[in-house]
Design brief:
Elements (H helix, E strand, L loop, with lengths): L4 H6 L11 H11 L9 E5 L5 H8 L3 E6 L2 H14 L4 E5 L15 E7 L8 H11 E12 L29 H11 L2 E8 L2 H14 L3 H8 L5 H13 L5 E7 L8 H12 L1
Parallel strand pairs: 1-2, 1-4, 2-3, 4-5
Antiparallel strand pairs: 5-7, 6-7
Helix pairs in contact: 5-6, 7-8, 7-9
């Protein structure tokens, strides 16, 4: 199956259903926090994968830049961008661990999106500081990551977690306190915490993962009819049975009235060198 065949047939919504159901959960959470705009706000999607959220934000009016180290993913993202006519989306290849090397991005974005990425990075404090640095004063961060107290969907969710950055998780996840600590050190103000991907999403994803080990296409076809249920029933059933959500979601704000911005510090250092 072509990577983008479904996108050609169904448009943008198909970008959200190529993998497990948790991707759609994240977009539904993001969408509520990305109101349609005609003001040209800028957005960076850090660790964008194949670009679904970058494209989705572009279709809502944001000048969106998706960053990923994976050249293959970026080629798929570019293809889907064209199919979806996402005029305001662009993509660049960048290892997010080296985000600070892109000084031209400093204080360039009204919104930074970082979904299910920080748990892959050993130096999470550096990443948080680098993300904060590319946000404009008055801008916002929308971040999701595994919740430390999730109930494992499949066995690998219990570890062992990597001690080196190989592409898999280097830690189980985060509590609210852990994320607020990172935000504080990065100079960001914690606004709110919420949770997504509960019982119905997790069980649907469980069957998708198990069936995928047999045949990916078969898994996709069999799970497709079930995808309608998580958006409708997930929160109600999760709260009813007392299940743990899989992801914790953080909204944060970069103060407009900081002592000195990262961009100003770098410009000052440049003048000193000259």
């Amino acid at each position: 199956m072509s990577q983008s065949l479904l996108v050609k047939i169904f448009g943008f919504p198909a970008t959200l259903i190529h993998g497990d159901t948790l991707v759609l959960d994240r977009w539904m959470w993001l969408k509520k926090r990305l109101p349609i705009t005609f003001n040209g706000e800028s957005l960076v999607d850090i660790g964008c994968g194949t670009g679904a959220f970058t494209i989705g934000a572009s279709l809502r009016g944001y000048k969106s830049l998706g960053l990923s180290w994976d050249e293959r993913n970026q080629l798929v993202a570019e293809q889907r961008k064209s199919i979806c006519n996402a005029l305001f989306a662009s993509f660049d290849i960048l290892d997010v661990r080296k985000l600070d090397s892109k000084t031209e991005l400093l204080e360039s974005f009204d919104i930074a999106v970082c979904c299910e990425n920080i748990e892959h990075i050993l130096d999470d404090l550096k990443l948080m500081k680098d993300v904060a640095a590319v946000i404009k004063p008055g801008g916002r961060l929308l971040l999701t990551t595994p919740y430390y107290y999730y109930q494992a969907i499949t066995g690998e969710d219990n570890g062992p977690f990597c001690k080196e950055e190989t592409g898999w998780h280097v830690r189980r996840g985060y509590t609210e306190a852990m994320l607020v600590e990172l935000l504080n050190h990065a100079g960001l103000i914690h606004e709110s915490t919420s949770y997504i991907s509960g019982f119905v999403s997790q069980k649907t994803t469980f069957y998708f993962r198990i069936l995928s080990k047999v045949n990916l296409l078969m898994a996709w076809i069999l799970i497709l009819p079930l995808r309608i249920f998580p958006p409708i029933f997930d929160r109600v059933i999760t709260d009813m049975v007392g299940w743990s959500y899989y992801s914790i979601c953080i909204e944060a704000y970069k103060p407009r009235y900081n002592k000195e911005s990262k961009k100003s510090e770098i410009l000052k250092d440049t003048r000193l060198v000259i």
